[in-house]
């Protein structure tokens, strides 16, 4: 990916909610590495919006991750005059809007508009219908890696047919986070795209709509006796390990088994798929292009 020419030093800040899970941190590091490969010479940092996750990660693993304000200050200290703050959220819900608010507050810290750090926001993974379609195309890599690897460069129709569920008694169930924000509606849109593309592939959410109860009802209606349960999360952290697959009676896995449905679970995450990261990188590129247009207007 080509770096857009600019007379001012530019930085990139990747911002998820955060996690204290070692596996999740490994995924964040992988995403950082892919960004740094595409933007050699550009400072690319990671920050969390969650102070709780920052504290837990420091206490458990001895890893220090900055919050947004600290990371922006570090980039400014490295000489950056403009920064793309790239959201690593799935949908533009409450955490995304908090990210935007914190970024704008930092931007206004300097009373002199000419000296202010100029910030442009990169949109979350699912920000429009086309994003949903692109994510759906990349999902065969979430599981069946050996079969999909053979067709990775091949026809997309072949990849989708490989992903499809062979038996009507089997379904794929994806577990997303969900939110109380109106942006939760994007999960329903994503679910419709998945149904159109693959048939018996369902998407529910932990904290939004549709919930696990609706998912169990739908699985019973279609006669599914077995599900391949996978997280629809950027990283496989606490939600994947506890809420989705944990031993507690209210986890997704336990609840499905109690309903008489056999569960095949594999710990995986969207951020482990390069095709998914590519969508985020394209959002970052659009933010960089917007930044350049704003600079031209300031002229």
UniProtKB/TrEMBL annotation:
Coiled coil: none annotated. Pfam families: CbiK. InterPro entries: Anaerobic_Co-chelatase, Sirohydro_Cobaltochel/CbiX. GO terms for biological process: anaerobic cobalamin biosynthetic process. The lineage of its organism: unclassified sequences, metagenomes, ecological metagenomes. Keywords: Lyase. Its EC number is 4.99.1.3. This is Sirohydrochlorin cobaltochelatase cbik. The keyword Kinase does not apply. PANTHER family: SIROHYDROCHLORIN FERROCHELATASE, CHLOROPLASTIC. It comes from hydrocarbon metagenome. GO terms for molecular function: sirohydrochlorin cobaltochelatase activity. The keyword Cell cycle does not apply.
């Amino acid at each position: 990916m080509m770096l857009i020419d600019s007379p001012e030093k530019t930085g990139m800040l990747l911002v998820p909610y955060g996690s204290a899970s070692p596996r999740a941190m490994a995924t964040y590091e992988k995403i950082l590495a892919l960004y740094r490969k595409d933007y050699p010479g550009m400072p690319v940092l990671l920050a969390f919006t969650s102070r709780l996750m920052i504290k837990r990660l420091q206490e458990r693993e001895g890893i220090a991750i900055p919050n947004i304000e600290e990371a922006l200050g570090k980039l400014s200290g490295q000489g950056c005059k403009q920064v793309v703050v790239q959201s690593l959220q799935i949908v533009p819900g409450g955490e995304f809007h908090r990210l935007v608010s914190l970024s704008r507050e930092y931007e206004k810290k300097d009373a002199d508009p000419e000296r202010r750090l100029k910030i442009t926001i990169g949109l979350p993974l699912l920000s429009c219908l086309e994003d949903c379609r692109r994510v759906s195309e990349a999902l065969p890599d979430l599981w069946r890696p050996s079969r999909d690897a053979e067709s990775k460069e091949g026809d997309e129709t072949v990849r989708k047919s490989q992903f499809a569920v062979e038996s009507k008694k089997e379904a794929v169930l994806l577990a997303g986070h969900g939110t109380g924000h109106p942006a939760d509606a994007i999960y329903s849109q994503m679910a419709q795209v998945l149904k159109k593309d693959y048939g018996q592939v369902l998407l529910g959410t932990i904290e939004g709509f549709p919930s696990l109860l609706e998912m169990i009802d739908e699985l019973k209606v279609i006669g599914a006796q077995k599900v391949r349960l996978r997280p629809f999360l950027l990283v496989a952290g606490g939600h994947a390990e506890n809420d989705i697959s944990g031993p507690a009676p209210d986890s997704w896995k336990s609840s499905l088994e109690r309903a008489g449905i056999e569960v095949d679970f594999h710990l995986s995450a969207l951020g482990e798929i390069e095709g998914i990261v590519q969508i985020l990188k394209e959002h970052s590129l659009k933010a960089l292009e917007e930044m350049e247009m704003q600079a031209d207007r300031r002229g």
